[in-house]
Design goal:
Chain lengths: 110, 116
């Protein structure tokens, strides 16, 4: 249903997603990849995001709301077999290599 | 009110994470994640939630890619042991390593028999 939707809009998003997947593989340490691998991973991440959305939507509807809140997304994270603390760890690891913004660095004395 | 003190809600740790996230830009663009979330009927006024989904999806793929790299390295060490003169450090993601890594995550990839 989701992967065979044929429109230019869907194709553009899928293409952007596959670029992101390729970038992640590159970050992991791969220098090259076969096309079928990127295609498989793109399909997986697409299913993952849609399942995530469906899950948090269900949690919000269970409490009689239509818009998912932070708690619903938190429940969905654990439903997907992940952990918030693991996510934080992952994000911290990613942002450690980032270069600080220039305007954040102030001179310490005059 | 005193009874509720010390009670941890499901969203508390995520709320804490969202407050500390700042203007972090995920590798998977938020617009793309938002598009797929909208397909599932997910609509939110809080863009930070979309960012969290991006991050979770990104972590999922990174974990799989890391596992695949371990499989690739293990195979590579066997090959370099056979030919000690040649040190090829370029890693290529192949379906063999990927399906081995995916099966560790509970995903079975089956190649159709007519697909070469």
């Amino acid at each position: 249903m989701t992967s065979t939707a044929s429109s230019k809009h869907a194709a553009a998003h899928r293409r952007a997603l596959s670029v992101a997947v390729a970038a992640l593989c590159r970050d992991a340490g791969f220098d090259s990849s076969t096309e079928s691998c990127i295609e498989t991973l793109t399909e997986i991440v697409q299913s993952y995001i849609i399942e995530f959305g469906r899950s948090s939507k269900s949690f919000s509807e269970l409490t009689g709301r239509t818009m998912p809140m932070v708690t619903d997304v938190a429940m969905a994270v654990s439903q997907m077999g992940s952990d918030i603390s693991n996510l934080r760890e992952y994000q911290r690891k990613l942002s450690r290599v980032k270069i600080p913004k220039q305007e954040m660095m102030y001179p310490t004395g005059t | 009110d005193k009874q509720l003190e010390g009670v941890q809600l499901a969203g508390d740790s995520l709320e804490d994470m969202l407050n500390h996230m700042g203007d972090y830009a995920p590798t998977i663009p938020e617009a793309v994640t938002g598009y797929y979330l909208n397909r599932a009927g997910f609509e939110t006024a809080d863009p930070r939630l979309v960012r969290v989904v991006s991050l979770a999806a990104q972590k999922f793929i990174s974990d799989i890619a890391n596992d695949a790299l371990q499989h690739c390295r293990m195979k590579g060490s066997v090959q370099t042991a056979r030919r000690p003169g040649k040190q090829d450090k370029r890693y290529t993601l192949t379906m063999d390593d990927l399906s081995a890594a995916l099966s560790d995550h509970g995903i079975n990839v089956k190649k159709p028999v007519y697909f070469t």
